Amino acid sequence: AADKINLIPQDFFAELCEQIIQHLNHKIPGVNTAELCQRIQTSGIEINVGDLAKIANIVSFLFSTAARNNLSTEELVTTLGNAVSTLPKHAVQVIRHVWNEQGKSISVSEDARNMATVGQFVDIKWKLGVAMSSDTCRSLKYPYVTVTLKVADPSGQITDKSFEMTIPQFKNFFRQFKEIAAVLETV
């Protein structure tokens, strides 16, 4: 991972670290590595989303472990120096700065440690479509709904999950959401 971190410019790495701290503080649902990766690629750097997600997981683990052990900035940098000799200098500088500025704000409560690891819903998008024809059928005229859910997994990575439904399935889906909304209003 250190060689991949070396590819990421300091400003993008700092933004990644900031987003991770915000995620650990429950201010944002997750780190949108796909969007950040696209911006890094646009700047001319060759990196894929999977590698960036691995880096985000490593940094997230680093920050959450440092928070759990209540490490000072110097203790974190010393530990990093002892454990990871191949970490680029600019990455260590960014980690030092971000941890020094915002590290103490990470709250590691017992409830957060014992919480079940489930994803967090971020956004939903849907669109109505009609399949006009296919290789095997000349005239389908079959309406369907495509739903895309944006979900942050427990590590903070934001992913899209898409699925298609028939109109009756979508009506049932919508009815269930209305039931959920009615129950939530009683809470």
Automatic annotation (TrEMBL):
Domain COMM: from-to ranges: 120-187
Molecular function GO terms recorded: NF-kappaB binding
InterPro entries (UniProt xref): COMM, COMMD4/6/7/8
Family per record: Belongs to the COMM domain-containing protein 6 family.
Purpose: Scaffold protein in the commander complex that is essential for endosomal recycling of transmembrane cargos; the commander complex is composed of the CCC subcomplex and the retriever subcomplex. May modulate activity of cullin-RING E3 ubiquitin ligase (CRL) complexes. Down-regulates activation of NF-kappa-B. Inhibits TNF-induced NFKB1 activation.
Name of the protein in question: COMM domain-containing protein 6
Upper classification of the organism: Eukaryota, Metazoa, Chordata, Craniata, Vertebrata
